[in-house]
Amino acid sequence: MRKLPNLVWLRSFESAAQHLSFTEAAQELGMTQTAVSLHVRSLEAELGCKLFTRAARRLTLTETGKAYAYSLRQALGDMAISTASLFGAETEQVLTVRVPMSTAGLWLAHRLPEFAERHAGISVRMVSNIWAGTEAPENVDVELRFGSGGWDGGEVRRISQERLVPVRAAGSGILSPEALRQGPVVQILGFEDMLLRYLNAHGCAPLQEAARFAVDTTVAALDIVAAGGGYAVVVERFARMAIETGKAISIAGDPVPVDQAHYLVSVPARASSEAAKQLFEAWLEEVFA
Predict the structure, then answer these.
(1) What number of other Cβ atoms are within 10 A of residue 209's Cβ?
(2) What is the number of alpha carbons within 13 Å of residue 229 lying toward its C-beta?
(3) Which of 87, 19, 115 is nearest to 125 (CA)?
(4) Tens digit of pLDDT per residue, the chain (289 long)?
(5) CA 198 to chain centre
(6) Residue-range domain boundaries for the chain
(7) Top-tier CATH class for 7-89
């Protein structure tokens, strides 16, 4: 059995991977930036593999680094939960998770029982928001956003690859790009570009006339589509989960890759929730993959 690397090095690497910053990791761990950097370099030397790509004012994980950080985050979280369950915890493990409304209602809520089954000692309090750029409340432990990743403040980590699909009422068949272009269209406010991206991928441009309906969530858009009110272009994982859970819609065309994705945003967890945060973020990376 191979000897484990120095545990202090591992903790420094995990924190640096979380923040993508040696400086922020040093602040979290109560040591100097030089010490964190030295720990990571020592770990890389022992493993014989680069874990980070270093550039001017930018730190990114290599593919091996991403895989190792994910495994390590799960292991540290499991250790912390085991310690709490065997020897007692100062406070209850309650995790507050902030998620976009459509992601919460159309996908994550249906997957949460899997997390609860795996980690029975953690209670999840999920709150939702419509617009990704709004600042998280102070008591949020995990922040999940959907978009292009260009938000101010805090490090972000992409955890998904997404595709767009057109949807229509169930049993209606495939839509050609031209038929989708002609509508009627159900537009999702804040994501009007989804229709444009899908049509552009097929060499079409949308009509200039207003959409028949405009709503501020994908949940509402799919309800209108299911009632026969028109067509919409949505994230494929949302459409498939809606169909799986009984929504009367169908996917009406081939998927198109999109550069928008789900991101974890670095927010400081409460000390009592740090272990649960690590486990939940590792689980999110797993189920979004």
Answers:
(1) 8
(2) 16
(3) 115
(4) 467 788 888 888 988 888 888 888 888 787 888 888 888 988 888 888 899 988 877 788 998 988 888 888 888 777 776 766 665 554 457 888 999 998 999 999 999 999 988 888 888 989 887 655 555 455 788 899 998 887 776 678 889 999 999 999 998 889 898 888 888 999 888 888 888 899 888 888 777 776 788 888 899 999 999 999 999 999 999 999 999 999 999 999 999 999 899 998 887 766 667 778 888 888 898 898 8
(5) 22
(6) 7-89, 162-258
(7) mainly alpha
Q: What is the pTM of this model?
A: 0.67
CA 286 – CA 289 distance, rounded (Å): 5
Token couple for 102: 């459509």
Architecture category of domain 162-258 in CATH: 3-Layer(aba) Sandwich (3.40)
